[in-house]
Amino acid sequence: MNNSDENDFLKLDFDRLWKGRENVTAVESGIIKSLLGNRHFGRILEVGAGNGRLTNNLIKYCDNYYALDKISNFLEKINIKSGIFKVACDLEFTPFRDGVFDVILMVRVLNFIENPAISIKELHRILKPGGILILSFYHTGSIADLFDIIINQRTEKNIWARRSRDKKRVKRSNFREFFFKKSYIHRILSDENLFINKAASSGLEDYLFLKKLPPAIFIKLSYFLGRSLIAPHTFFSVLNKESISDIDDDGNLFRCIKCKQSIEINQSEFNYETKCPSCGHKIIFNNGVLLP
Ligand SMILES: C[S@@+](CC[C@H](N)C(=O)[O-])C[C@H]1O[C@@H](n2cnc3c(N)ncnc32)[C@H](O)[C@@H]1O
Ligand SMILES: [Zn+2]
Questions:
Q1: Nearest CA owner, ligand 1 atom 9
Q2: Packing angle, helices 182-191 and 116-126, rounded to 10
Q3: Residue 26 lies in a domain
Q4: pTM, rounded to two decimals
Q5: CA 20 – CA 54 distance, rounded (Å)
Q6: Which residues contact ligand 1 via a Cβ below 6 A?
Q7: Which atom belonging to ligand 1 lies closest to the Cα atom of 46?
Q8: pLDDT digit string (tens) for 215-274?
Q9: Looking at the CA of 261, which ligand is closest?
Q10: Domain range enclosing 50
């Protein structure tokens, strides 16, 4: 994400963008629940968590929930509760040691990042063997996509045109690429030796009269939609089949982003400053957000 993209994000009023779309969050939460298989996990990392639209749904499935986002102003909006931890950094360079997360989720982020392949590599590094990676993204080629192009006059430069009131607000975007093919995500995952276990699609609940239908219908249909090209937004769930046995999970998750040495960080700090004992790199807590 370059600086102009970051400005694009800061311009967005997430609260307004999501107003009246609780049905979309309900459908996405239902799909995530089903992809996680009703299990309880140790650590979940949400990458690109924004202002925590999904936080309350995700903390139910784990002991510890980690929200990561490049923009710390967004993370500050997530309420501090026990078991919630916030990290502001670029997802290409995270301060985590190898194989520490049971689940990593990245919802509505892939389309906005500079280098999806490098990001997937980093997420694979910090995912436990046997862990689950869930990615969602908008793709081309769906019936809904065609509807957006023709009826909503969406173009690559006007990605927010899905709702006419947004069209006025953000006219142009600097995002390098927005829509890509499902096959592109297949390819960058298989380059990392990661293979899709389940696919479920959503997004129809955001259109016309479909908004009025109960979310449960779309959750039920999501696996069928995942195998077709009807809905515009897809979740891929990937199981990390590797069996690396030399990961020592001694409970310490962190490493210095500069020298990569393991470091201990007190996760309950609010405003605090410390240094990496190996290289002296400064690590800060600002309003409960770790700036590694
Ligand atoms: C469209 S928002 C989605 C927010 C949230 N996942 C949701 O579904 O409501 C994309 C988020 O990804 C974050 N983001 C984009 N590029 C990033 C990067 N390189 N590293 C970390 N976060 C990034 C943005 O700051 C933003 O909060
Ligand atoms: Zn260091």
A1: 53
A2: 50
A3: yes
A4: 0.92
A5: 16
A6: 1, 9, 48-50, 53, 69-71, 74, 90-91, 107-109, 112-113
A7: 6
A8: 999 999 999 999 999 999 999 999 998 775 556 667 789 999 999 999 999 888 889 999
A9: 2
A10: 3-139+176-253
